[in-house]
Description:
Elements: E1 6-11, E2 17-22, E3 28-33, E4 38-44, E5 50-55, E6 62-67, E7 70-75, E8 108-110, E9 115-117, E10 125-127, E11 132-134, E12 142-144, E13 149-151, E14 158-161, E15 166-169, E16 177-179, E17 184-186, E18 194-196, E19 201-203, E20 211-213, E21 218-220, E22 228-230, E23 235-237, E24 245-247, E25 252-254, E26 262-264, E27 269-271, E28 279-281, E29 286-288, E30 296-298, E31 303-305, E32 314-316, E33 321-323, E34 330-333, E35 338-341, H1 346-350, E36 362-367, E37 376-377, E38 383-387, E39 394-398, E40 404-408, E41 416-421, E42 427-432, E43 436-441, E44 446-452, E45 457-462, E46 468-473, E47 478-482, E48 488-492, E49 499-504, E50 510-515, E51 519-524, E52 530-535, E53 540-545, E54 551-556, E55 561-565, E56 572-576, E57 583-588, E58 593-598, E59 603-607, E60 612-620, E61 628-632, E62 637-641, E63 645-650
Parallel strand pairs: 10-13, 18-21, 26-29, 32-35
Antiparallel strand pairs: 1-2, 2-3, 3-4, 5-6, 6-7, 8-9, 10-11, 12-13, 14-15, 16-17, 18-19, 20-21, 22-23, 24-25, 26-27, 28-29, 30-31, 32-33, 34-35, 36-63, 37-38, 38-39, 39-40, 41-42, 42-43, 43-44, 45-46, 46-47, 47-48, 49-50, 50-51, 51-52, 53-54, 54-55, 55-56, 57-58, 58-59, 59-60, 61-62, 62-63
Amino acid sequence: GRHGRVTAMALDTTKTVLVTSSESNPGKILFWDVIKGRLLRRISNGRGNIQQFFFNDEQGTSLVSSSDSGIVIWSICLNQDEDSSSACSSPCSAEQDSDGSPQDNGLLWNPLSRSCEKSCSSGLHASMSTGHCLAACPDGLFRLDTEGTCLEVCPVGYIRNFTSFSCDPKCLGENPYYNSNSDSCGFTCPTGQFHNDNLKVCTLNCPNDQARDDISKTCSSRCPFDQVLDPSSSTCKSKCPTNTYFDPHSGRCQQTCPSQLYKDVQSSLCLHSCPSNSFLHEPTSTCMQSCPPGLYGDQSTNQCVQTCPATTKYKSLLDNRCVDHCPVGYFTERLTLRCREICFEESCLENPGVVPLDMTISQREWGLPELATFCVLGHDGQKVTCPLLYGGGYLIFDLQSGDVVGRQQARSLNRVSAYAQSLTDVYAGIGFDNGHIALWNLADNRFHQTLKSKHPVTALLFQRDDRFLLAGYDDGSIFTWDVVSGEKEAAFQGHTSSVTSLFLSDDGSLLVSASDDKSIRVWELASGAIKNIYRYSQNILSVSINPEKTLIVSGNADGTITVWRLGSNNDLVSTFLNHGGQITSVTFINESTVASSSKDGSLIIWAAFTAQELAGGVILSDGPSIDNMDFDPTSRKLLYQTEEKYAVITVDRYLQDETVFLGHSDSVT
């Protein structure tokens, strides 16, 4: 305001520097910082009043002024000090070539911070040809928002938008990936190519600055939530290589953890504190399941110590821990305070600490990633497949190691509402709450096709061959889909509310369905005719039929389980009342034995005719809610799943041969 009437002004292309001239300062040019509102520097032409300004280049270092005495072209270096006498050079060039041109050192001039930086801040775009961060791309250049750069030619998979002067992706919606070989858009990329999630294109290899996921064939800035980045190969892996640890701050595997973090040998993670079941070895900043020889795990401090505290003074050689007393079968060695096994044979000295374990049931369990749901057993008894709750992705686990051996990334925001797997483990059907069913070929980990309907999918079941998929919907309808053609082949109409469960007899002739309309319907699969109808007072959530097609069992919303005789309507055989919560799943594991799970965390194996638990049949009595259960009769394995884990049980001990005599209509006396 104190410089008089402004006669000329101009704003540079970054919109951060304003140039002015006024009547009170004829011949003087003032440079202002628009962001901070302060004077940067002043220069003088000494040739009268200036009438017009304009910048002659995109980085704002060439200024043209017009005055009464003529036109002057200025070379301006605003990144240099006001009293600098050096020639105007490129702002961020460290050295110059023999011809005087600046060398490219990868740094960009940021006009907001007035400094050289590796990347532009939010709202600015990098002009690689000039090494400047610009608020808007100059004429002739196009803005690529995903990379924050200004380009003359848009990358593969993008087209130039001459209205917004931006690079817009060619592919949008349900087919987001561009394939340059076929010049087409697709839901997934061809075999052998990677999905570049940043640019939404199919590429043969991932860029050096992106993580490569070989299972889902994806390039992205970070690995999936259940993977870690191995920097030596830029590859996403299920866990860090041996002797490396995952740093959550950098998202990478490292040989040493940052300061204040500890190496956890069990999980290969860098942690702020050791897990409750491990001990800290201070010299190496490592969490260990068992302390090194000569040291013992103190459970009160979770540290490896040389001498156990007075409260737990005894040293157990069984697992190198401090204990308050020696276990059964061991005695206290007074001189060393060690627990030694009571044994008079040389074999005990060669292998101390071995305790025979009498397992009443064979069970293994593994932790689950967040949002994994509807886990099912593969029919070879070797794998477990778990779809993710949103988007249609899935994880395949090896049943022996628990490692992820197959994966597909989620590709939408729709919620998964049902899942089924074919008997040959070739196809998987994932149902969504928007009425769509995504079919995947598990054999080669590839997308097959989408089956579309109007109503949310509530239940799925493959027929005995891989050709047909049965789908139940929330309006009570049931349809048969041809997996090859994608067409509806048959309809089963009768339920008046959401279908909750579908089950096929072993010979594939009968379909059993349950519904929120409080009924069970038995259908002849070939004709679609209704064979029997069973009604109950509560919503029915799960249903199963025994191999001989003589009994049906149903799990109900009120926590009861009912056994029905197949052949006549509403012929109730028995009612099981030992669960304390809503039933989540029921299944026959032989002709007359049932396994059932509940929201109260219980899993019980019991006899269908007597509704009595078998000896040792209470597998779980309480705990986290059991959300899902699956039985594979071929491998005779039973899977159950909670929010945090899945476990697999071998049920051979409950599958004893028995003879059942039917005929009496009342109590046998």
